[in-house]
Amino acid sequence: MKSRSRLRVRYAETDTMGVVYHSNFLVYFEIGRTDYFRDLGFTYKELESKDVFMPVTESYCRYLYPARYDDQLEIITSFGMISRLRIRFDYEVVREPDLKLLAQGYTVHVPVNSVGAPCRIPQAYKQALSRSVE
Amino acid sequence: MKSRSRLRVRYAETDTMGVVYHSNFLVYFEIGRTDYFRDLGFTYKELESKDVFMPVTESYCRYLYPARYDDQLEIITSFGMISRLRIRFDYEVVREPDLKLLAQGYTVHVPVNSVGAPCRIPQAYKQALSRSVE
Amino acid sequence: MKSRSRLRVRYAETDTMGVVYHSNFLVYFEIGRTDYFRDLGFTYKELESKDVFMPVTESYCRYLYPARYDDQLEIITSFGMISRLRIRFDYEVVREPDLKLLAQGYTVHVPVNSVGAPCRIPQAYKQALSRSVE
Amino acid sequence: MKSRSRLRVRYAETDTMGVVYHSNFLVYFEIGRTDYFRDLGFTYKELESKDVFMPVTESYCRYLYPARYDDQLEIITSFGMISRLRIRFDYEVVREPDLKLLAQGYTVHVPVNSVGAPCRIPQAYKQALSRSVE
Asked: N or C: which end of chain D has fewer CB within 10 A?
């Protein structure tokens, strides 16, 4: 499964070079993750309410082409279970309407509970996630 | 008492106009507040650990002159008790070295506990705050 | 005319209190302004390409009720010409689906050109803006 | 040469988990780069005034341990010339006073001019940078 999120670049996200400041792409990735969960039929917020948090333990991004204020972007998100303890999301940021690829990257996450101890993703959620990569 | 905080403008804080995006001045104000508490001999963090939070209920800012990347700024913060339930901080943002006034504003806060109910600031902290305006 | 913008709260916008950090409401206001221009049939970006910029010279916000991660919000934006040199936007931030009013505020803007000198909004745009308040 | 930058975590930088939102570490890295240039005897701002910009083309970060509001952090920055066209900075984010390593990462940059064409770093700056890695 691939999830598709649409957003418009905010003025606040740009910098003196007239382009989106690079760290905001990680925020765009987060929007992609949130929508990926929603497309699976639940929400990340719901997962947190069950004491499962998914902090980012690694992030990588290649910035290929700048995004500018008011650009309409699409975030394409896919998912991969790495191991029992680590999951990964992959992202592409594409500019509409010319479908130019602006950035691509990934994030790695380790499920933890609210005191920071590694924990398992509840079975129903894990199955939904696993099924989404088939 | 007036508290003085120094900071250098980050690239991330600027926008396409080449100046600090206006909402970041509210973040600069927060730095001023944090230092004001520290100058009084305690920390806002400590107050939160005693279940006293001070969410912003109002903010106002006049933007007089732009700040730019790498500018060295000074935030000058002063405090005023409004009532038993509301406190207020006033701020000036000055550019070094020419001491040009870039912005001025205020924030209003209502002390609440972690479930959001209005609460009193513990006596020792309140006295330190009150004394600071004399 | 009132413009309506919808957005979902990002994790990045929240803080340790578990609510949207207050300065982000000014960013939400910016989204409202951008959509207001678009609803009038042009874009703020287009205005900038004609050497007309609209920096914020004043901002005010009352924070009535917190917004949280993943909340669906609506920004309701209206416009008022103050004088030949100053314009103002008013905003309300409402939470869907219960229509709870979370925040309200305004921003004041002075049209300037790229070297920062006050300038007039081109006639066609000014008429569109004026007509929108009738 | 290693450059050392000190900063205190802002409330605005934290999220609902009570820790620094991960994308802010890229902003901390930027502070490290800015100070690295300054420690070499010039500023990145000065470089931009000579029509040399250094957009980030890649970023990577491993998040080992969370940072929290009001934590005092140190960013340790080092530099490596990759090729005639690419440079790289490496970063460590350490918490004071226990010197716990919270995050480490790197950014890759390609010098370009204001129209986005790859360009050379002016000789004097390049020599200063090269000398700093010896």
From this structure: C
